[in-house]
User: Fold this.
Amino acid sequence: MNNPEGRGAPEVTGSGSTWKTWGLLALPLFFLVVFFYLPIINTFKFAFTNTSGRPISPIDLAGIWRPLAFTFYQAALSTGLTLVIGIPAALLFSRFFFKGKRILRTLVMVPFILPTVVVAAGFNSLLGPRGWLNLALMSILNLSTPPIDLLYSLAAILIAHVFYNTSVLIRLVGSAWSRLDIQLEQAGRVLGATGWRNFVEVTFPLLRPSILSAILLVFLFDFTSFGVILLLGGPQFATLEVVIYIQSMHLLNFPAAAVLSGVQMICTITIIVLMARLAGNTIVPLAPRLREEGMRAAGSIKEKVFVFGMVCLLFLIFLVPLLALILRSITRLEFDPGQGNAFQTTFTPVYYQELFTNRRGSIFYVPPIEAMRNSLVYAAMAVVISVFLGMLVSIAHSGMNSKSKWSEVLIALPLGTSAVSLGLGLLLLFNGFNWGAALAVMLVPIAHSVVAMPFFIRTVQPALVSIPITFKHSAAVLGASASRIWREITLPILWRPILAGALFAFTISLGEFGATSFLARPEFPTMPIAISRFLTVPGALNYGQAMAMSTLLMLICAVCVFAIDRLE
Assistant:
């Protein structure tokens, strides 16, 4: 056994242990083969099967190129803007103490786990034609039309993506930055490299792998963005995701949707391969570090200005859209034609009350509150699937040597695959089966668990590997059975990561929109589907209900984020 630090499980060398390990992986791999790989392969097959007998025409190629080019364009712009905000924010959290740091750190993590429809609703309530900023300017300047026209624009897409993905860059780069050996920076200062030069010549070369990995991950999320583009961009800013949705669900042109989905999967797999090549170049501390070692309070005037300015900017970016959403969900706007363009705001709980009713002529088959119940049920089912299969994978991988972990790539691939492509693949594969209502409904939590399971594994497996193997050996010497070792040693150490991973899976399922838009039956809508319908239907009541349901979904996700932060 080659394990000098006594960490993690021993490498598997015996044939019996090898069979036991692969036995643990059999069910998760079978699950992914049936509900991920077969749908994806079937989509490729459907895409390149020429049912008409004609080659792809130049018009068809142009129809592929236009959304593909815009997808790359908006993803590159969004990633660049995220980098501009995220790098200084990572420096703030990794090097400085300030009041409210823990609250702000948790707050900036909320958007990453928020459903895209909630993000779109938040910016709609702040920057839309009926948003607070436009209403205030119209009242102050006595204007008849909204002066700010950001909704259905590229600017709205970029702002929402920065809001949504900055937390990813803060998390990855900030974590690596905080683990750097502070003595290296101090040595650079002693040798005369201060400020910017010290960052360029000392810090940045060490952070480069983490920064590149974060850039690729943010680019991947922007490249596969769906809800933000659909609700804030409009048809004139259609990406591959949006065109796939329109071709399949509106035009019923499944061959074209399959071709676009195949092109998108090739692009996302290429990005994932690049990320995997960078995964081996992670930052490793060069000396033992205490937690938060090297952090300090701002000393100089420049540092104080930097900390104060970044804190204000982050609160403005992350808090204002969420507060605008909450305020809009409890406010009724009443315009008075006799008072020019003035409007009155009155507090009202009517939008929340309407969630429990089903008025005549509603586009829903059930009251909106039923959508909340459906989402909670789907999320609970997805958690059960993700936790069960994820624990099997985590236990199996903790006992495998590094050369045998090619299965990790197979299981982690859904993490970077478009949810829209997954939903289309499941729809095309299982559409011909006579499942019945109950079994057809199961496709939704199954799709959610395919997306959520890698997050659960990435939360639990590092904690499982970090358990000193000497704990188990000592217990075995004292006569404890394998089940008792698991019950009295492993589980008490793992319960916090398991609960955190389950909460991750719960919130991901709760807000999943891309795959659900293909698979959800009309009589069983989820909260994101209901919010999307409300936002696309005219009327103040529909808009108010969208804000109310978005607020409830946001609060549930925020509670989960705060709980995860306490468990980590």
Observations:
- Residues 531 and 546 are 5 Å apart (CA to CA).
- The chain has 22 helices and four strands.
